[in-house]
Design a protein that fits this description.
The chain is 35% helix and 35% strand. By secondary structure, the chain is an alpha+beta fold.
Length: 422
């Protein structure tokens, strides 16, 4: 992500210091207090960076789209104080009570051999590229890819002539195999598995796209006139989450104590991209050509969709979206765009099994305390550039795509085995 420039900084803080103190009671009942000593902070704070002097209000009243950089940081910390009571034989059985923010030092990641896992800045940059490409593709793409529909016209007519053929064949095989008690382990199992795979693929890549195309055509037919000369917004998002857990670790937590420290961090990043645009005031025929994907600019994306297994490639990269994004749409006028990165983290720390360093008092009761730190960072990048090449999608393959891949593999393997026998 590129570096931003700001002209104004504003901040508010409700942070207050935390303390630690000792209350020492002799065997004669005389109590003295050592402290309090400043330890850390609790409360919340906020810092905002933005840009001033761009006549935002007056330009907005004139109908201009004004994009500007923005950055917000929020910090909050809460804690449960440590409360210990123990006897110190070395000091004539002095009874000592310790109260305060022992978790403050334990919050530091330097106590652990490795830092918590977070979404890297490199991955955030990729997420921003993917989201912006997707939003731009939504702005440019036609409601229906007519070229793809035309190329699949004969198979589609065949499917309509014999609806749910693969599903009906599957049901027949199940009935026949159940009668012979031969469904899972008998000689018909391979054909049964292939029928299952074909039925799934028929639903996912034949009936479902056809229904969605019909819905899109019907919706666009009613929206052609209404959407002209309106400001529209195309949006897309990417989300990643990392959760880290640290095993209990004996560490020096300050104030003369060591303790077992147990920590965890939940770190999430959401990237939101958007494009504001207008559709030119063409007549209904021209708008229809645009929405039905019948322009020359639709050829690259349509050609990609027609390539065998291009949809599988799009599981791992954004080639299809990128082609739509980089090919200008003559009837569309972009007015502005943005990418907003939202980082959220929650760190929890618990302290237990506290021991005094240098001597061994008997810890009779109490707890080591705990803390929670939350950080929210929001950054808006105005008018970013679309990536110059497709990028890999660094995310796990969804269950639906795994099912699709399994269905494709099963069908091809069984067909290949059948060809070998012949």
């Amino acid at each position: 992500m590129r570096e931003l420039t700001f002209t104004r900084e504003r901040s508010t803080s409700n942070l207050v210091p935390t303390h630690v103190k000792w209350i020492n009671t002799t065997k004669n009942g005389v109590a003295t207090t050592d402290g309090p000593y400043t330890r850390g902070v609790i409360g919340d704070s906020k810092v905002v960076y933005d840009v001033t002097g761009n006549n935002f209000q007056s330009r907005r009243k004139r109908g201009e789209i004004v994009m500007s950089a923005f950055h917000l940081e929020r910090y909050a910390r809460s804690m449960v104080p440590c409360a210990l009571e123990y006897t110190v034989p070395e000091y004539d059985n002095l009874v000592q009570r310790f109260i305060g923010d022992l978790a403050y030092t334990a919050d530091s990641e330097s106590l652990y051999p490795s830092p918590y896992e977070r979404v890297s800045e490199a991955d955030i940059g990729l997420m921003a590229d993917i989201a912006l490409v997707k939003a731009t593709a939504k702005m440019n793409e036609p409601a229906v890819v007519t070229g793809e529909i035309a190329s699949d016209l004969v198979p589609t007519l065949g499917m309509l002539k014999s609806p749910f053929k693969a599903s009906r064949e599957l049901i027949k095989k199940i009935k026949a195999s159940v009668k012979k008690s031969d469904w899972v382990y008998g000689s018909d199992r391979k054909m049964g598995y292939k029928a299952m795979a074909n039925a799934w693929l028929e639903y996912r890549y034949a009936w479902k796209p056809l229904i969605m195309d019909v819905q899109s055509i019907a919706q666009e037919a009613g929206d052609l006139a209404a959407r002209r000369n309106q400001r529209l917004v195309a949006r897309a998002s990417q989300v990643r989450t990392c959760n880290s857990q640290r095993e209990a670790l004996k560490a020096n937590v300050g104030a003369g104590y060591s303790a077992d420290v147990l920590g965890s961090l939940s770190h999430s990043v959401a990237v939101h991209a958007g494009v504001i645009y207008e559709i030119s005031n063409h007549n209904s025929a021209q708008t229809g050509v645009t929405k039905l994907g019948l322009q020359l600019r639709d050829i690259p994306a349509t050609a990609w969709e027609l390539l065998p297994y291009s949809f599988v490639v799009d599981w791992f990269g954004n080639v299809g979206d990128w082609l739509q994004a980089i090919t200008p749409q003559p009837s569309v006028t972009p007015l502005g765009s943005w990418v907003t990165v939202v980082k959220r983290s929650t760190q929890r720390t618990a302290v237990s099994n506290v021991e005094a360093i240098g001597y061994r008092p008997i810890i009779e009761c109490g707890n080591g305390g705990s803390s929670e730190i939350t950080k929210n960072i929001v950054t808006r990048y105005p008018n970013p550039s679309v990536a110059t090449h497709p990028v890999l999608l660094r995310k796990p393959v969804s269950v639906l795509h795994l099912t699709d891949a399994l269905s494709l593999t099963v069908g091809n393997i069984i067909t290949g085995l059948g060809d070998l026998r012949h």
